[in-house]
Amino acid sequence: MCGIIGYIGKSKAAPILVDGLKRLEYRGYDSAGISTINNRNIIVEKDIGKINEIEGKTNFSKLDGNIGISHCRWGTHGKITRENAHPHVDCSGKISIVHNGIIENFSELKEMLIKKDHKFKSLTDTEVIAHLLEENYNGDIEQAARKALQQIEGSYALGILCSDEPNRLIAARNESPLILGLGKNENFIASDVPAILKYTKKIIYLENNEMAVLTDKNVSVKDINGKVIDKKIHKIEWNSELAEKGGFEHYMLKEIHEQPRAITETLNGRVENGNVNLSEEINLSEQELRKIKRIVIVACGTSWHAALAGEFMLEELAKIPVEVEYASEFRYRNPIIDEGTLVIAISQSGETADTLAAIREAKEKNAKILSIINVKGSSIERESDSVLYTYAGPEIGVASTKAFTTQLIVLYIFTLFMSGLRKTLDKEKIKGLIERLRKLPLQMDALLNNDEEIRKIADIYKSRKNALFLGRGVNFPIALEGALKLKEVSYIHAEGYPAAEMKHGPIALIDKEMPVVFVAPKDIYTYKKVLGNIEEVKARGGIAIVIATEDDKEIKKKADHAIYIPKNLYTLSSILAVIPLQLLAYYVAVDRGLDPDKPRNLSKSVTVE
Ligand code: M6R
Question: Is residue 527 exposed (0-12), middle (13-18) or buried (19+ Cβ within 10 Å)?
Answer without folding.
Answer: buried
